[in-house]
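Input.
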Amino acid sequence: MTIYHSPPLPAYSEEAIRETRALQMPDLSGVPGEEDPFQDCFTRVDDAADLNDASTLFEEAQRLFSQAFTRFRADLSQCEAELQKTSDEGKSLKLLCSQKDEELKDLRADLAKARKSEAELDKQVTIILKEYGLLDPTVDANTSVSQLQQKLEIIRLLRGEVDQVKADYNWWKENMDYLAMEKEAALAKLASAETQLRSAKEKNSAQTKRIDELEVKLAEPEAEIEKTKITTDKTIVVYFRDAEAAQTELKEASNREKQSNDLDKCQSRRETLEEIHARGFGLTEEITQAKTLENDARFLISSSSDNYDEGSQGRYDNEEGPGEEAAPEGETSPGHN
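Output.
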């Protein structure tokens, strides 16, 4: 009879078994719950003076959430790898168990054949011994019991190996079921996180749309302010020009007044000299000189008046166009009221 020795089973230490049983998913407490994960991030957005703060807060929240999401993905991938590894080992154990069962069947078949052959041999030996008168019932019984004990011991060992393989298979199957449950829980949490992320993106889209609307509304007053600023600048230029013209006119008026006073003085002096000359004093030369001074003063006054009229007319012509352009609709330029 041929006895097949099965290959040794894989050895697993108690520590490795405990570590495998204690395998847990990573702490997913950081995954937001049913509530809005960005509720705290947007608490002060409505009250913020600067709309850029809302965008900054959302970017920070999105960055933190992306980090947590990436970490969850990595943990899930590790879990799947562990599950795949466990599944492969379970398949190996199933294959080994199947091989052991086949070997056990072969051994049982061989045992049956051996028993049958042994029975036939015993029968033939018994016949031969009986023919020659050498049959000893005690020796035959002892030989049969010894062989039977050996065969029973072999069967017991094989059954022990099969039981160990079945126990290992059941243990790995439990771990596979546990890991499958953990994977389903992780996928559920991941789906929840993705839903909350989509919700946050929708809120961000609404916030961005609101910001765009506010920017459009803000652009209109800015355009009005820019237009008003241009008009104001033109008006200020006209004001400064009119102020300079007024100062020039004031200076010319002061000069004319001074020239008029000089003319009055010259006339008064001439008249005084003529009165003295009429009384018989020889003041012809002084009178002639006084008349010359009076004529000079009259000439200066006349020239100043002509220059003033020409300057006023020129300024009026120059200011008429810019004044109308600078002044807003319905208003008049300063100096032309």
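Residues 14-110+165-226 form one domain.
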